[in-house]
Amino acid sequence: MDIVILAVVIAVVVLGALGGLIVGSRRKKQLPPPPPAAPDITAPPAEPHVGDEAETPREEPRRTIEEVDLPDGSAPVVVEEPPAEASEIEIPEPTAGRLVRLRARLSRSQNALGQGLLTLLSREHLDEDTWEEIEDTLLTADVGVQPTQELVERLRERVKVLGTRTPEELRTLLREELVTLVGPDMDRAVKTEPEDRKPGIVMVVGVNGTGKTTTTGKLARVLVADGQSVVLGAADTFRAAAADQLQTWGERVGAHTVRGPEGGDPASVAFDAVKEGKEMGANVVLIDTAGRLHTKTGLMDELGKVKRVVEKQAPVDEVLLVLDATTGQNGLVQARVFAEVVDITGIVLTKLDGTAKGGIVVAVQRELGVPVKLVGLGEGADDLAPFEPEAFVDALIGE
User: What is the DSSP string of 85-129?
Assistant: First the structure.
């Protein structure tokens, strides 16, 4: 019995020891790692802690001015942006003899008229059929019916009196008659310098597509080349970008541009341009008007209003009508209507290069009774030239 009790006790002790070992091993596995130690943060010595009384600042060593490292005195590097490039003012080509210099270009496109007439007049027998061909050649060149008849009659008389006709004699004969027809005695100066006041006032009128705004810009170059100061009035407020276009022309030669809001009152812009021209002491004010259709009565009335408003400041010295030389007889219709609204004082023929219809010069002068004063011979900035009858006729008949 004692042995049994002793065995039971030993078994209980063994089981208890085993249970303790198992529980101890599990606890070792489940215990989480100890938290990291918080860093020891030391508050600044001179700053008080929240809720605590402020501590007395402790004395710290301070450096004298001799001990402080100062900069060596060299100026800091400053990166400068390049200055904006100012628009360069162009120096336009002198106007004296400009048409003569452009004669070669003109003659290439006009030979159909001059050379055609010379060929016909050089025939051995000038019968009625030949004279009719001469008339057809002149009419095709837009000389007009009445001027054509007058020229043919004079040519017939002179050829009959001349008898023998050498090429040199025919060329001289034809040149004299064409110069007479074009009108060498007409005053073709653009009136920009009135004697009693400044500035001279020039209105530029014409329908859309004739190159009116471009002509105004080129005319500014002509005047600047002759030593005059110019103010531009961008009174074409109906065409998009017309004012921008004119201002660009002005900036290239140093001319001031007066403009208004798009779709604004053209008469108001023209009035302001003349007013500023007076204040600036400019020699000339050029007013670019809207390219109004000649079939629109209301728009034509607006053009008359612009002129009346401008004349409240000063008289208008020139009204230049810009015509496209390629339009022929349609250009004459435009000229008639414009002449009824404003007093046209001069004609500007654009796109005269590239067309053999140089006779429009004669026709439009006869229609309005005013001279062609300027001609446009190309797309270049200096391709606007004062009209010179002799140089023009020389270009027509060639060298």
Answer: PPPPPP-PPP-TTHHHHTHHHHHHHHHHHHHHHHHHHTSS---HH
